[in-house]
Write a structure and sequence with these properties.
about 350 residues, alpha/beta, globular, 2 domains, 9 helices, nine-stranded mixed beta sheet, six-stranded parallel beta sheet, Dihydrodipicolinate Reductase, domain 2, Rossmann fold, 15 strands
Length: about 350
C-alpha cells in the first residue's frame, strides 16, 4: 500500500529532514506541502516539485492525504493535529506538541477519540546509542534504575531560526527537555499514571533573543514512586563544535551504570555507549546496526512498530511534564504534574 503524504509547516529545519526522507521511500507518495509564508512555500514547492497550499486544511481538503507531518510553529501544532486526527488522518507531530496545558488537553482528547493516529516525532529514541541503552536496561543489564541524569546542549544556529523561535512560551525546557523527559520515563519504566514534582531554574545567559528568551535551564523531576531525574538543556554549544550538541545520559542502576553520548540528533563522530556492570571493567558497546533505526517506518506501520516506537500518550505526558517544569522555572515555585 502506498501512503499519500503531506507536510504542514516549513519554517523549522525538521521539515526538510522529514520531506526528504519521505520522498526517498517507495511506499510513500508525497503529495503536497503547506506554509503561510509565501516565499518559503514557493521556494520549497519548486525545490521538491510539489503542490503548495497556505495551510494544512486547504491541503487536506484538496489532496486527501492518509498522513501528514506537522512542523508548524509550536503554538499552532496542537490545534492542527487535533483537527486532522478527527478527519481520520494520521499525524507525525513535531515536538513540542503544545505550549500550554489547554491546547495539550485538547490534543489528548482528539488522540483518544479521533480515527487518525498521533505519532510523536521523538527522534532521540532512534539514535543508535540511546536505543541500545534502552535495550540493555530492559534486559536487566544494570538492574533496577536508581538515578537518571541528562545533558542536552545544542547550538543556537541563530541565522536559521524562524521568528517564532525567539518568543516561544515554555522555552528551552519544552523544546529540548521534552526529549529527555521521554527517555527518562522509558528508562525508568514509568506508566501513564505517574505523578511528578518539578523543581527548575532558567535564564538568558548569552543575551541573545531579547527579553523573555531562555537559553539555559536546569530542572529536577521527583516522582511519587521511583528514581528522580535531573536535566540540563541549553542553546550554548559553541559553533566550532563539530557536534550539534554533546548530549549525554548517565543512568545508574542497582547492578551497574550506563553512559550514553550522542550528537544532538545529527549522527556522526561522538556517539558512544559505555556499560559498567558487576565486577567487569567498563565495556564500550557498538552503537547498533549499520542501518540507522527508522522513525518513519514506525510511523507508517499502522499495525505494529518497533520496540522503541512511542505512543501518543508518551508525547502528551512528556509535553505536560515539560510544561510543569517550565512553569516552575518561570515562577520560582515548585510545580506538580498529573496526567490528563
Amino acid at each position: 500500500m502506498t501512503v499519500r503524504f503531506g507536510l504542514a509547516g516549513l519554517s523549522h529545519f525538521h521539515a526538510s529532514t522529514i520531506i526528504e526522507a519521505m520522498i526517498e521511500r517507495a511506499d510513500v507518495r508525497v503529495l503536497a506541502l503547506s506554509e503561510e509564508d509565501y516565499a518559503l512555500r514557493s521556494a520549497n514547492a519548486s525545490k521538491y516539485g510539489l503542490k503548495a497550499y497556505r495551510n494544512a486544511f486547504e491541503m487536506c481538503d484538496a489532496e486527501k492525504p492518509d498522513a501528514v507531518a506537522i512542523v508548524e510553529r509550536p503554538d499552532r501544532r496542537a490545534d492542527t493535529a487535533a483537527r486532522l486526527l478527527s478527519m481520520g488522518i494520521d499525524v507525525l507531530l513535531d515536538k513540542p506538541a503544545a505550549v500550554d496545558r489547554e491546547s495539550l488537553a485538547k490534543l489528548a482528547e482528539a488522540a483518544r477519540k479521533g480515527s487518525g493516529r498521533l505519532f510523536p516525532y521523538f527522534t532521540v529514541r532512534y539514535e543508535r546509542p540511546v536505543a541500545k541503552a534502552l535495550e540493555l536496561i530492559r534486559s536487566g543489564a544494570i538492574g533496577e534504575v536508581s538515578s537518571f541524569t541528562s545533558m542536552r546542549p545544542h547550538k543556537l544556529l541563530k541565522g536559521i531560526r524562524p521568528g517564532w523561535f525567539w518568543g516561544m512560551p515554555g522555552d528551552v525546557i519544552v523544546d529540548l527537555g521534552i526529549h529527555d523527559i521521554d527517555i527518562y520515563r522509558v528508562a525508568c519504566g514509568f506508566g501513564p499514571g505517574e505523578r511528578f514534582t518539578a523543581f527548575a531554574s532558567s535564564g538568558n545567559f548569552s543575551g541573545e533573543g531579547g527579553e523573555g528568551f531562555v537559553d539555559s535551564a536546569q530542572f529536577m523531576l521527583v516522582p511519587d514512586n521511583g528514581p528522580a531525574g535531573t536535566f540540563l538543556a541549553d542553546w550554548l554549544t559553541p559553533e566550532g563544535d563539530p557536534r550539534h550538541g554533546d548530549c549525554a545520559y548517565f543512568i545508574a542502576g542497582t547492578k551497574g551504570r550506563i553512559e550514553v553520548r550522542s550528537t544532538g540528533g545529527i549522527p556522526g563522530k561522538g556517539e558512544a555507549l559505555i556499560l559498567t556492570a558487576g565486577d567487569r571493567p567498563p565495556t564500550f558497546i557498538e552503537d547498533g546496526p549499520a542501518v540507522p533505526l527508522d522513525i518513519f517506518s514506525d510511523f507508517l506501520s499502522r499495525e505494529s512498530g518497533s520496540e522503541m516506537a512511542p505512543g501518543w500518550e508518551d508525547m502528551i505526558i512528556a509535553n505536560g511534564i515539560a510544561l510543569a517544569a517550565a512553569k516552575a522555572a518561570a515562577s520560582g515555585e515548585i510545580a506538580r504534574y498529573t496526567n490528563y
